[in-house]
User: Which sequence fits this backbone?
């Protein structure tokens, strides 16, 4: 598997970063994962816009000429890894770079950011999309800037592992008595045909797939409310589902062993799944020339 690291395409096993890299010692960086279908990137510009926002929030100064060629690098990776057909995912990570000695303040002068990209085959979780999944509730103990897609994912990892240890697919995070999101996806509830989801704020990541669901709801005149789902009203919902880049639209059947609605994927989530598949597999993105 070929990857890209700081200006060079090389074998994955040969890619190395310094132990002084701030992504390693501080988690000081951001990342994006973009779906690719037959060489076409799904909502690529949305991912790049969020990347730019994250870099700005962390004050990581990436050279304009490097930022400009990121789409070309991604396409060259697809080519070198024979991923121009079928489904794939491109991972992009940018950290503040390697600095010694270790210090909590930003390096002055700034270090050269570390830029890493990889591409790998992707297989959608189609069976889970049909059957739905079970979940558990966990406290949302993440920091208060969840809107920045940083590489600081330990609370997410612990929540996902706890779900696995309890034999379910994922977790639903609860903060201040309401549902925020999952370790790796946004969450929508359905009540009387109307969608509800946590409003954009510093407590959730504004997902690209979440944006697609909102567009679908507006297109199909499905009711939409941006308000938190109360933990106490969770089991009053008719439907509940995840949305995410590698999750797609995934129905939730049970939470802590208790059914949501009928305990099976409902009509609203099925409708959104169908529309989302149309968007994903008929993307208007056009492949750009590889470098």
Assistant:
């Amino acid at each position: 598997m070929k990857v890209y690291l700081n200006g060079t395409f090389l074998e994955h096993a040969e890619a190395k970063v310094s132990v002084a890299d701030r992504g390693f010692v501080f988690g000081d960086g951001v990342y994006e994962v973009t779906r690719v279908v037959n060489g076409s990137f799904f909502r690529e510009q949305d991912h790049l816009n969020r990347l730019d926002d994250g870099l700005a929030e962390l004050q990581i100064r990436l050279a304009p000429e490097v930022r400009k060629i990121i789409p070309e690098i991604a396409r060259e990776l697809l080519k070198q890894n024979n991923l121009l057909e079928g489904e794939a995912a491109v991972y992009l990570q940018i950290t503040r770079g390697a600095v010694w000695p270790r210090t909590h303040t930003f390096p002055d002068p700034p270090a050269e950011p570390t830029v890493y990209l990889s591409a790998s085959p992707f297989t959608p979780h189609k069976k889970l999309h049909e059957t739905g999944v079970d979940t558990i509730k966990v406290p949302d103990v993440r920091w208060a800037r969840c809107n920045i897609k940083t590489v600081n994912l330990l609370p997410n990892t612990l929540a996902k592992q706890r779900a696995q240890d309890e034999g379910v697919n994922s977790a639903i995070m609860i903060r201040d008595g309401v549902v925020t999101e999952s370790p790796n996806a946004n969450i929508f509830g359905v009540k009387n045909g109307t969608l509800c989801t946590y409003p954009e704020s510093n407590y959730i990541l504004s997902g690209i797939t979440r944006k697609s669901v909102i567009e679908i709801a507006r297109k199909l005149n499905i009711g939409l409310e941006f308000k938190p789902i109360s933990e106490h009203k969770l089991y009053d919902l008719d439907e509940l589902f995840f949305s995410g880049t590698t999750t797609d639209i995934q129905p939730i059947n049970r939470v802590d062993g208790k059914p949501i609605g009928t305990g099976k994927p409902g009509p609203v989530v099925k409708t959104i799944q169908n529309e989302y598949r149309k968007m994903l597999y008929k993307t208007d993105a056009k492949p750009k020339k590889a470098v």
